[in-house]
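name: query_chain
kind: protein
chains: 1
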Amino acid sequence: MHKDLIPAAAPLIGDEEVAAVERVLRSGMLAQGPEVAAFEEEFAAQFADGRTTVAVNSGTSGQLLGLLASGVGPGDEVIVPSFTFAAVANSVVLAGATPVFVDIEPTHFTLDPARVRAAVTARTKGIMPVHLYGHPFLVDGIEEVAREHGLDVYEDAAQAHGASWRGRPVGTIGAFGMFSLYPTKNMTAIEGGMVTCADEQTARRVRLLRNQGMETQYANEVVGYNNRMSEVHAAVGRVQLRRVAAWTVQRQRNAAFLDSALRGIDGLTVPAVADGAVHVYHQYTVRIAAGERDRVREALRDEHGVGSGVYYPIPNHRLPSLARYAPADALPETERAAREVLSLPVHPALSAGHLDRIVRGVAAVMSAGG
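structure:
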């Protein structure tokens, strides 16, 4: 192992976040309160065109509550990608519905609208695409299918804070959008999630469900959960919210440098950006062809000190927990992506020296061959 490893991800926590935590701890107000309310308003203004936004304790909670608030339940089907984190399909199952796995398009690794259209049945309630790696899903095609069949769109924007499609911010496209605030995301609240809601009815339902089914103490209207965000998490998130725009610019600059230096290397494909899309590079994900991915990953780590990630090596429909929902037909692009993708460091903590080492390492390892 190289003694000076460049990490694949690097959460940025500074003195401001520490001070915010101390301030809240000394205040004595620790449960959901004014910090959470302020965070919701500030997040909505920055990322969601002012859509009503509800803070919860994790992105997965946000997905689940968004689905329940949208009326998803037993007997319903929700079309989802298999090439993503399992929380997407998990949330559908936890809502009592059935996830229907559909293949991705090969360029941006997001749901293929044509495959989505073919998967619609009389039981389909909605489509839950993922803005994967920081790139928006193909909104035009997905919305066309949704309109044709009267379906809802539910956005997984966990990795896409600040991304947009033809000027429309992600999280403002569907019936709800979910953003994750996990430590490795483009901004963090240590843990947490945000649900951006298309209407006040959905927002009120999410608020009820996150807080034991009540808005007024002891006046429980529905059976709910304890999915509240704490004041400490909100305070950290508010500090990060002030910094994330600059971090996003740095991610995009780092990605542009990597594009320029790595494009044209045999056996490697750099990320593509669709016309009209703003990519925020949660990950800088390349393809490594012909079964070389794992060799390249190991050599980068051991010989050049370059960390990387594989997101996602096992498609959801092949996980033991979700295999019972596997489609009858193969998902060839999903399977190919699982064999070929490699995410290189792109985070804003990278120095010029780090970027040079990444480029030199990738070039050397790819030229060495198997």
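note: The mean pLDDT is 97.
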